[in-house]
Amino acid sequence: MPDKFYITTPIYYVNASPHIGHSYTTIAADVLSRFKRKALGQERVYFLTGTDEHGQKIQKAAEAAGLLAQEFVDRTSQQFVQLWRSLNVSYDDFIRTTQPRHIKVVQQALEILYRQGDVYEGKYEGLYCTPCETFWLESQALGGLCPDCKRPVERIVETNYFFKLSNYQDWLMGYLNQHPDFIKPASRYEETLKFLELNKLNDLCISRPKERLSWGIPLPFAPAHVTYVWFDALINYISAVGEFDAQGKYRSDWWPADLHLMAKDILRQHTVYWPIMLKALQIELPKKVFAHGWWMINEDKMSKSRGNVVNPLEMIERFGLDAYRYFLLRDVPFGLDGNFSQAGIIKRYNGDLANDLGNLIYRTLTMVEKYFQGNIPAVTPGSHPIQDKIKKLPAGVAVALDEQNFSQALEFLWELIGLANKHVEETKPWNLAKENKQDELKNFIRLLVDVIRAVADQLEIFMPDTARAIKDQFEGSSIKKGNPLFPRIEIEK
Ligand code: MSP
Fold first, then answer.
1. Who contacts 420 (Cβ-Cβ below 8 Å, separation ≥6)?
2. Which atom of ligand 1 is nearest to the CA of 291?
3. What pLDDT was estimated at residue 300?
4. Contact status, residue 230 vs residue 269, Cβ threshold 8 Å
5. How far is the CA of 197 from the CAs of 98, 275, 290, 413, in angstroms?
6. Which residues line ligand 1 (CB under 6 A)?
7. Residue 110: which of 232, 284, 215 has the closest Cα?
8. Residue 482 banded pLDDT, cuts 50, 70, 90
9. Which residue's CA is minimally distant from atom 16 of ligand 1?
10. DSSP character for 462?
11. How distant is the alpha carbon of residue 324 from its chain centre?
12. Nearest-CA residue for atom 10 of ligand 1
C-alpha cells in the first residue's frame, strides 16, 4: 500500500497493571497515528497495540492469583483495553499473543526456520533470570546477579532449540552501517552498533521445556517444548497484519511497519533479534525503531519490580486527561529520561495550560463578548508577523513529528500562544475601545481568533477533547463561551 503508516507499541506484559510508563509509549503512538490520519486519511493508518500473555512471569502471576493462566490473561489484558479507552487512545488493533491468529503465525515462522536449518536442537547451559525470563552471559551476570533486576540468576542445563543468530551478525552490522536512520535516537543506534562490535552473538535459545514452563506456544516440530516468550512476542508485529502462504512467503497489506515505538529497556530485542528473525524469514525490515527514555521516580526507573509505579487513572482524575497527555509529551524530549512528579505536572498545568493557553482563550472570548456582542469580527486582519507564524505552524509541527519530536512540536504551538498573549498586552485593546478605534479592534480580535483556531487544529492530535472544546467555543460566526478550560490548581502550602 503506498503512503500508509503502520505503527506499533510494545505488547505489554499482563502480569501487572499498566502504569504511566506504558501509557507514555501508547499515548505517543496515539498522537502519531492521529497526525498521520490527518495527513494520509483514516484508512491508511494502522495503529497496533496489545498484550504479551505467555511466559513464566504470567504463569506465576496466574498461580498466585489462583486462576488458570487463560482466565488470568483474559482478565488482566482487559485492564489495558480499558485504560486505553480512558486515555483516548485510538488504536486500530489490539493483539493478544493467546489469539489463534498469532499462534498460527508463530508456528508457521518456527516451522520455516526449522526446515531451513536456522532453528536446531542443542543443549543449553546458562545463567537464567526467572523474573526477567532472560539468559545472561557470565560476563553480564556479575556476582551471580541479573544485570536488570539484580536478583540471583540460576544455572540451567537442558535440551532446547536454538535460533542461529550468530550466522547473521555480519549481515546485521552491514545493514546498520548502511541504514543509520533505522534506529533512533542516534544514541541508541550507536549503542546497538557498539554492542555488535564488542560481542559475538550467541545463538538464541528459543524454547523452554514444558516441564519448566507450560504456558506458551508449542513448537510445531517438538511439542514437548514451548516457544521462548520474546520470540513469540516479537512476531505480533507481523501476525497482526498478515500470514505466511503455502510457499512460506509472508503476505501483508501493511508490513513493513513504519515505526516500532518502545523504551530503551527492550532496544536489543528490537534491533538485534527482531531484524535477524525477519531476515531469516525473508521478510522486509521495519523502517524505523525508536526507543524513548524512561520515566523515573526519584532517579529510579518506574517499574512494578521496584514498587514505585504511578497509576495513570489517578493522574487523569486529578489533572484531567489532556493535561496528563500534554505533560508526558511536553515535559521531556522524546528519547531522554524524565523525572515524574505531580509537582512537575502542576507546574506545566498552571503555566502552559492555565496561564498561557487557557488565558488566551478566556480573554479572547471575553473581549468578543464585550466589544462585539459575541460575534467574531468577519475581517481579514492586515498583515502582522503573527500571521506568518500561523501559516508556518502546520509545517513546523509536521517536521517535528516526522522525527518523533513531540516536545518540539508543542513548543511551536506555545510559542504562538505566547506571541498572541504578548500581543494583547502590547496592544492594550481597552484603549482601542475607549478611543473607539473599531477597525483596529476588529483586526486585533480577529487575529487572536485566528491564532486560537490554528492552535486548536494542531492540538487535536495531542489533546483531542481540549481541541474539540476550543473549536466548539469558536465555531461559526459567534462564540459560545464555556467554562475556563484549565482553571488554576491552587497548591496548599
Ligand atoms: N512484553 C514486552 C514487550 C514485547 S514487544 C514485542 C515488555 N513488556 S512491558 O510490559 O515490560 O513493557 C515495556 C515497555 O513499557 C517499555 O519498552 C516502554 O514502552 C513501557 N515502559 C515501561 N516502563 C516504563 C518507564 N518507566 N518509562 C517509560 N516507558 C516505560 O517489555
1. 360, 386, 447, 448, 451, 452
2. 17
3. 86
4. yes
5. 37, 17, 21, 42
6. 10-13, 21-22, 24-25, 52, 233-234, 236, 262-263, 265-266, 294-295, 301-303
7. 232
8. confident
9. 263
10. T
11. 14
12. 12
